[in-house]
Write a structure and sequence with these properties.
about 150 residues; alpha/beta
C-alpha cells in the first residue's frame, strides 16, 4: 500500500515535470494549474479539423496524453465516435453552418465566449493544448465570417 502511494506520488511529480517541460517548449500549450485536481486532466482544442478521420497531428498528441486520467477533445461532432472508441471525452462548438442554420444573427460572440469558459471550468484541465486555431481565434474567425455574410 505504501509502495503504491509512493509510486503514485512519483508518477504525479514526473507528469507535472513533463508538462512543465512540454509547455515551456511549445507555444500552443498552456499549463493551467500546477496542482493535480481529480486526476490528471488534459483539454485538447481541435476546432478546425477537416476530413472524416482524426488528423495525424491530433492522433500524435492523443498518444502523448495517454498518461492523463482524463483527456477531453473539443472538435467537430463527426469525430465523437472515434474519440469515444479511444475512451476520450469530447465537446464541440458550433461552426459557421450551425450558426447560419439557427437563423439567429445576434450574440454569437457572447455565447461562444461563455461556452469556451464553461468548457474550461467544467473540465478544469491541468494541461491545455491547441491544434490549429485557438478557441479565441476560432471565435474571432466565426465573427469575421458572420460580418461578411451578414
Amino acid at each position: 500500500m505504501i509502495k503504491e502511494r509512493f509510486h503514485n506520488l512519483s508518477l504525479r511529480f514526473a507528469l507535472r515535470s513533463l508538462r512543465n517541460l512540454v509547455t515551456s517548449r511549445n507555444p500552443g500549450a498552456v499549463l493551467l494549474s500546477d496542482t493535480r485536481k481529480q486526476g490528471n486532466v488534459a483539454l485538447v482544442w481541435a476546432l478546425d479539423q477537416e476530413g472524416e478521420q482524426l488528423s495525424g497531428d491530433l492522433l500524435k498528441q492523443l498518444k502523448k496524453l495517454k498518461s492523463f486520467e482524463t483527456v477531453t477533445v473539443v472538435c467537430p461532432p463527426r469525430y465523437f465516435a472515434q474519440l469515444r472508441g479511444m475512451e476520450h471525452f469530447f465537446e464541440t462548438l458550433p461552426d459557421q453552418a450551425d450558426i447560419a442554420r439557427s437563423g439567429l444573427s445576434r450574440d454569437w460572440d457572447l455565447y461562444l465566449g461563455r461556452r469556451i469558459s464553461r468548457i474550461r471550468s467544467t473540465w478544469a484541465p491541468d494541461f491545455e493544448f491547441t491544434i490549429g486555431l485557438s478557441p479565441e481565434d476560432y471565435m474571432k474567425r466565426l465573427g469575421d465570417r458572420a460580418q461578411v455574410h451578414g
